[in-house]
């Protein structure tokens, strides 16, 4: 196994989101493919099949809109998700949103 494949195996979902976003900035064709088939493109990118029941949704930030993701509570896992953990999928991997960030937003708190 190559060093690159070993690195990908130990990466988190956030790591993958950053890599995918960077690739979309550098490769417009990759972005178009990702828009057409987010799950298929992501499976190729991570070199691993995703569960058949998993839906992958592509969300692209807009100049005047950001998407804030709230993670699921790991204490609220279904039997299927518990089975998935035994098969190597953790709770944060039971649903995947690939974010393509196109803007920087600063939020000021009063």
UniProtKB/TrEMBL annotation:
InterPro entries recorded: CN_Hdrase_a/SCN_Hdrase_g_sf, TOMM_pelo
Single GO MF descriptor: catalytic activity
Superkingdom of origin: Bacteria
Protein name: NHLP leader peptide domain-containing protein
Native source species: Sporomusa malonica
């Amino acid at each position: 196994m190559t060093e690159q494949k070993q690195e990908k195996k130990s990466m988190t979902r956030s790591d993958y989101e950053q890599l995918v976003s960077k690739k979309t900035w550098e490769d417009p064709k990759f972005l178009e493919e990702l828009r057409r088939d987010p799950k298929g493109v992501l499976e190729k990118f991570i070199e691993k099949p995703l569960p058949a029941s998993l839906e992958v949704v592509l969300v692209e930030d807009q100049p005047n809109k950001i998407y804030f993701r709230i993670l699921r509570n790991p204490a609220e896992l279904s039997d299927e998700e518990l089975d998935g953990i035994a098969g190597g999928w953790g709770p944060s991997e039971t649903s995947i949103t690939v974010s393509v960030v196109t803007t920087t937003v600063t939020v000021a708190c009063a």
